From TrEMBL:
Keywords: ATP-binding, Chaperone, Nucleotide-binding
Residues making up the signal peptide according to the UniProt record: none
Membrane-spanning segments: none
Protein name in UniProt: Molecular chaperone HtpG
Listed InterPro entries: HATPase_C_sf, HSP90_C, Hsp90_fam, Hsp90_N, Ribosomal_Su5_D2-typ_SF
Lineage of the organism: Bacteria, Pseudomonadati, Bacteroidota, Chitinophagia, Chitinophagales
Originating species: Nemorincola caseinilytica
CDD domains attached to this UniProt entry: HATPase_Hsp90-like (cd16927)
Family note: Belongs to the heat shock protein 90 family.
Any Pfam family the entry gives: HSP90
Amino acid sequence: MQEKGSISIHTENIFPIIKKFLYSDNEIFLRELVSNAVDAVQKIKRLSSLGQYNGAIGEPLVEVSFDEAAKTITISDNGIGMTAEEIKKYINQIAFSGAEEFVEKFKDAKDANELIGKFGLGFYSAFMVSDKVEIQTLSYQEGAQPARWICDGSTEFEITEGDRTTRGTSIILHVNADSQEFLDKYKLQGILDKYCKFLPVPIKFGTKKEYDYDSVAEDAEDKKPKEKEVDNIINDTTPIWTKTPSELKDEDYLRFYRELYPMSEEPLFWIHLNVDHPFTLTGVLYFPKVRNDMEFQRNKIKLFSRQVFITDEVKEIVPDFLMLLHGVIDSPDIPLNVSRSFLQADGNVKKINSHISKKVADKLAELFRTDRKAYESKWADIGLFVKYGMISEDKFYDRAKDFALLSNTKEEYYTLAEYKDKIEPLQKDKDGKLVYLYTNDPARQDAFIQSADRKGYDVLLMNSPIDNHFIHTLERKLDQTTMKRVDADVVDKLIAKDEKIESVLTESETTSVREIFEKAISKPNMTVKVEALGSEELPVTVTMDEFMRRMKDMAAMGGGM
Ligand code: ADP
Ligand code: MG
């Protein structure tokens, strides 16, 4: 058996173009070839379980190896293999709709994914790092002959009889001069860890040393076990998102979290996604402790397609406000070689996005309902997501308005409805609008807060990085409501509580205290207002922002006020 032929695309030497334009992403060749190998193994398992293949399937295995001297990288599997006919069908007929279109489009392609996705070039990504690619394969089909295909990156290929004696396929890459960096254990291990860590078939990459505890005899003096060489399997074939939530304990979720983010604190809680319809989506999303450090935390969600890592740029799939979450999502509806433009255009992606948003809202509502105390104690962290969501999405605002909390300076928590009820009797301005008082700097505004408190008003704590925007959202969303930063004028303008505050100073004393302060400050355009509140620890407040702290310090030092 020997055949020479031409790959059916209508232009010469398309591979130099691929190589040249895709250089920056060239490591994905390994992802593509390993996932083809995994597919091939899963196909034989499926055929066997359907009774269409009666031979032994053996231990499913994909093996990646390299030979520095021969300058080759080999990806082999014990999957279904290919006949020479199938090679011609699946490998030679590249899914180009036309060479012109390709040449037209590659000009604008920004990354390899876009090209590969558009043109079905998974296998051909091998040419990004190879001068020559060889396939050795033996099909599972009865009486199949081993076949060998070799191609040097031109459109010419050669098919001859192959060497393989066992079912499966080996892809041998003859690594080109520019890509010698890949002939390195750590380089390859790093790429495998990135893309293949959770693939569903064991992937072997060399061997490693392990203690052999069986080697220690009961009565041995030296209890130290011998070392033995074992296969270095680089992946976990059943990561938690592939399991059903009922099989899993909290500890499993936490262990997985630590594996993904070894340097992070424990997450607050998590959501296990499991959707079959109208799209397939699995995943686990964790709520981290954000600690007000929002930028640092972004881009921690990993996107997978059938357990193959694709990217951690999930901007289109996850609503922007949930980009702070950690974890994984996996959808076979998203192609391996996904590009930004695909994500933006794809209808499923939009559905996934709104599904995740809804799931997150459901989970928060449930936490709020089942254990409000615990929910309140985590509000400092949760609140950031919720507020961010309410600011950025009307739909989420509507879902969240029942479990969003407002906290005041006394560390009490209220839902929006509860808070309205609380302040309605007292905090209105002369037009009858509800006035929500807040502080964004409780230390500096302490005197105003106390003054408001004495009058029976409540002051909200709004000092997270996002609260500025959240305040605007509340004003926009709540009827007949204004948000006012607490200060003296604001407090004064509210309709005061019935009982009058007893001043500890007479009117003339008040005037002279004011004059003393005005003199001491002695700056034009600044007025000092003295309020005698009649309480022991703070008999007088001087309501001038810039000097508050100093005045208080003086009072504390017994400055004779
Ligand atoms: P895709 O994986 O999207 O189908 P590829 O270009 O990666 O596209 O692969 C083309 C086809 O070549 C596969 O669909 C499969 O039929 C065949 N193929 C590639 N690698 C293998 C392999 N290791 N074993 C069996 N068939 C393979
Ligand atoms: Mg493929």
